[in-house]
Amino acid sequence: ANVPATGTSLYNGSVSFTAETSGANYRLRQTVSGNGIQTFNLNNGSNYGAATDFTSATTDFTGDATGVEAHWCSEKTYDYFSTQHSRNSYDNAGAVIKSYVHYGNNYVNAFWDGSRMTYGDGDGGITPLVTLDICGHEVAHAVTEYSAGLVYANEPGSLNESFSDIFGECIENYGAGSTN
């Protein structure tokens, strides 16, 4: 069941979002935004099949601020495309937005691979790549793939990147009220 939840996020303090009841615990999944938003922990690995849920004994998630940030940002990104562009998830058919955080070790990047978003933790000098504009940027790659069909190479690839940059800033302004 979907439940209102809160959590301590990495960059935005205490945030509100939707979580899911899972037995006696709660996890960073929900089914109210399209067919859902799901956020997983790769535990500094790269095997998606070994990813685990972020769980909490209460509806207040305080154990992993990076996971909370990615989940909240995914909800804000879904809400932006829904309210501002009448789009139901990145494919406009309610696709589940899946985010995987804590990818690899000292990984300074984030990416959309055609089915999910993946976020590295940075290298100490660069912090985890789960800011609202980065999450928005990655989901925008999915929107572009499903709406424009641009080949990710040369000029079309450059357009794809610029569209994601612009949408990332729009989503940051929508979700946080300003951009950096």
Describe it:
The chain has 180 residues and is an alpha/beta fold. Helices cover 33% and strands 26% of the residues. The chain has three helices and eleven strands, in the order E-E-E-E-E-E-E-E-H-E-E-E-H-H. It has helices at residues 65-85, 132-147, 154-176; strands spanning 2-8, 14-22, 25-27, 29-30, 37-41, 52-53, 55-56, 60-61, 97-103, 110-112, 117-120. The strands form two sheets. Strands 4, 5, 6, 9, 10 and 11 form a six-stranded mixed sheet that branches. A five-stranded mixed sheet has the order 7-3-2-1-8. A hairpin with a 6-residue loop joins strand 4 (29-30) and strand 5. The longest helix has 23 residues, at 154-176. The protein is globular and about 50 Å long. The protein starts with a strand and ends with a helix. The mean pLDDT is 97.
